[in-house]
Amino acid sequence: MKKLIFPFLFLTFTILQVNSFRKRSIDLIAAHGLISDNKLPRDITPNSYNLKIHPYPEFGNFTGSISINATVQQKTKTFFLNKHPDLIINQLKVELVSVSEIESKTIPIAANELVQLDAEWKQVKKQSMMSVELSSDVNAEEELNIYLEFSGFMYNNTSEGLFRSTYVDAETKTNKWYVATFLRPNMARSLFPCFDEPSYKVPVTLTVVRPNHMKTVSNMPLVSSSDPNEYWVTDMFQTTPPIATYSLAFVISELKSFSHNVSDSEVYFPDIRMKVWARPDFLPALVNVTSKVSKSIQFLENFWGSPYPLPELHIFALPNYQATRPSDGWGILLFKESELSSKGTWHLTQELVYQWLGALATPFWWSDAHINNALVRYVTAYTTLNINEDETYWPTTMLYSIYYEFSKRYPHGKNTVIKQDSLSAKTEMVFRMLNYTLGECTFKHGMQRFMADRQYKNFFADDIWSSLTEQAKFDKTLPEPITINEIAGSWITKDRLPVVTVTRHYHNNTAKIHQRVYLRERPHDVPDQEKFLWWIPIVLVHQDKMNFLNTTPLTWMRREREIEIKDLPGKDKFIVVNPEEIGPFPVNYDIENWNILAKFLQTDQREKIPVYTRAKLLHDAWNLAYAGDLSFATALNMTLFLKYERQYLAWDPVFTLIDHIGKHIDSSTVHKKFQTYVRILLTPLYEELGEEPKPGECEGISNLRRSSKIFLCQAGYKPCIEEAQKAFRTWRDSNNPDEGNPVANQYICPVFKWGAKEEWEFGLQRIINFPFGRKPNERTYLLKTLAGCPNDSWKIERLLNITVLEQNGNFTDNDIYLIFSMLTGSANGYTTLFDFLKKNWDVIKARFVEKPMLWNSIITSATTAFKTQEGLDMVSELYLERQTEFGNADFVIEKALKHIKEETKWSNDNLPIIEKWLDNYLKENQANIEA
């Protein structure tokens, strides 16, 4: 074996170059829409790359070379390439091809003669870009050969760019290296100089140099390898189709693989070579991967009307893979071992969808990436559901999240990442709406039309909408002159969602349908809300014609504030608008229609309404009540059918209802009645489900059991408390309780909330005596429950005395900040904190005078969470007493007072209604109330 030699060029780095590795000049993040790259000038454009990479796994560095053939687009003397500042350029050559003449010379040069041009490069300041200055101008339509030699280091701590990692071989017990790429979204520039923008799609011919005991896998099949007896083996691969730089991928490793054997399986297998790679001892955990991939690919090929676009597909379960998401290189998918071995197919299918949408057809620029991401997510969900994989609560959980986010007074705050994610989720729901309203056939053929037009090319968002419009016009599923571009634009360009109100006129069987901005948080004083209008499909179901399969809109609200619909059923029959949550908007009705629905759902006919629609009706009702648009009596009537309901999807909104409403009223006398209501509601369900999972039980039922138990425990369900105390006793009786926590986390909060003084004191001592060697997150969880769960004020006051007044050295400032935050979760917590602050004002102020973070935190936590007139009076009195002493927290108390006034109005309006309803409910269910 030849001796390994660390390349000499790495010994000659300048101090400037070495320092450049310590701080990356740009942050590359997964949310493509957040990328703020400057576009490369289009003076020249690439035609092809011939790339050679030589990694040195043991040393963590690499060398390489690239030959770029490019065409000059306009006369220039300077051009630009993307290059990460950490990448070192060791040589640059530029040759002119197909020359007619060079301006600086008087004698023309023969065509096709290569002419070397003097060229100098420099790094563009604060950009991941290099400029190349030529010795003379080059003219439009001429070709350049740009040759560069370069070197760099691999990323070891994060799985991005060209990275390496190790794992322990189970047989030899030795460490083994692997090298892999994750170039999405714009990390190719950290590996080689290039045009690192998605709009530049060109063929790539890749050569990789590897140690002879390892193997290389890339996007395309292997063409040839050099002498295997040499230590360094050179692998050459087939030229790729036109690809974006982020689609390039390769893996060098000693991992083992297995292939799909068509004769051993009856499942569909596409005409591609597929291999699954992993540690030899982990391969048995992946035996089902090929059949899952085959199912998904069969469906996706049919959906896109296009076969899988490459001859090979390699799927890796990488040990110690650190990226937050799988890598979707074209033809190479990288997963964490746990993700690939899980029984579900969601993650796997999503990466397969990217093979078409992102690799075969590619967004022109990052600004269209959220459309790409949204369509990928929708097609993933559509595929997963159609191949009968019961894995998720999709789309309910996503819908609820975007409802809550877009109904805030200030959606997203200043968090751009949340904004991008919620925008993508909303766009995903727009695709779902279009699939319903246009019909699956039209939607699918529209997608096929788009893919046929854009494969191996780039696209803009409008290309997708235009393809759907053309198909819908052809199929006559979209009324003239509507376009999908108009419809989609009305949803995607707004950080809001609409609420539709249906007011029936029973005397003539008509209804007015009104749209406005959906606002859940108070006050509803969002500026310019009267200007917000959407294209809204009105899909309608009558009680006497309950066909939930017909999703063709009765009509569209064409950015109209109000429309009228006719020919509705009589006054004893309900209607449902937007069944199955076809569009991402809640629907309100007049009280009579709500009451007819509530009564029908309590009959044995309720399952004629599909479970998604039952969940929607419940979710819409209580959220509209929470927003002040519906009486809580009407909303709570919509929960009465749950006595008979056992479908887990219908229960999903209930737990959010309990949490949101429970927290809002827990400072009032109504709260105890509400907890009794929760126990009556959930106890039969939990007892029927049983404490242990049943064989073959789906994940949804398991989640329903778990949620039922958690909320029953919070509501004081005695069997739960006794079970928690019994489990907790094993910890208390252990010889050395500081060694670890043998109790499941689910038991700790009920014990601290409802248990005895000794149990809470035991938890306090465990935090004080927490050993240095144990995981810090275990202590954090214990501290959160110790502060946030207790029902007794004295427990909270004792914790505050120890941490704030006594300044116990076992508690850091971060611990105190965490305690303050946790106390806002219950009225008992923030009321006790308020009393503690008022009683010890001078001491606390002196303690935190030089710690503004803690001072602002205690003022915020102690004042902002009140929701009643009593709380408003308490905070107002404190403000008057200490008006000049709040310092930099003055804005906090003023904001708190405004907020409490709004919450007090809500409480004054709603608490009497909730209490009256609960009194009637508890009276009717007296036999079910525990003594």
List keywords for this structure.
Immunoglobulin-like, 3 domains, Zincin-like fold, 931 residues, 8-stranded mixed β-sheet, alpha+beta, globular, 27 helices, 5-stranded mixed β-sheet
Please identify the structural class as seen in this structure: alpha+beta
Compute the CA-based radius of gyration: 32 Å
Helix content: 25-40%
Number of strands: 30
Which overall shape is indicated by the principal axes computed on the Cα atoms? globular
Low confidence ranges: 1-34, 101-109, 261-266
> Strand order within the widest sheet?
5-4-8-2-1-11-14-13
**CATH-level-2 architecture of the largest domain:** Sandwich
Beta content comes to 15-25%
Q: Superfamily at the CATH H level of the largest domain?
A: tricorn interacting facor f3 domain
Number of domains as seen in the coordinates: 3
- Gap from first CA to last CA: 82 Å
CATH class of the largest domain: Mainly Beta
Oligomer class? single chain
Q: How would you describe this structure to a colleague?
A:
The chain has 931 residues and is α+β, with helices and mostly antiparallel strands. The protein folds into 3 domains: 19-356, tricorn interacting facor f3 domain (Immunoglobulin-like), CATH 2.60.40.1730; 416-645, Sandwich (Immunoglobulin-like), CATH 2.60.40; 707-928, Zincin-like fold (Alpha Horseshoe). The protein contains 27 helices and 30 strands. It has an 8-stranded mixed beta sheet, with no helix packed on it. Strands 16-17-18-20-19 form a 5-stranded mixed beta sheet. A 4-stranded antiparallel beta sheet has the order 9-10-15-12, with no helix packed on it. A hairpin with a 5-residue loop joins strand 6 (119-123) and strand 7 (129-138). The longest helix is centred in the last third of the chain and has 35 residues, at 890-924. The termini are far apart. 41% of the residues are buried. It is found in: Cell membrane. Belongs to the peptidase M1 family. It is an enzyme of class 3 (hydrolase). This is Aminopeptidase. Its EC number is 3.4.11.-.
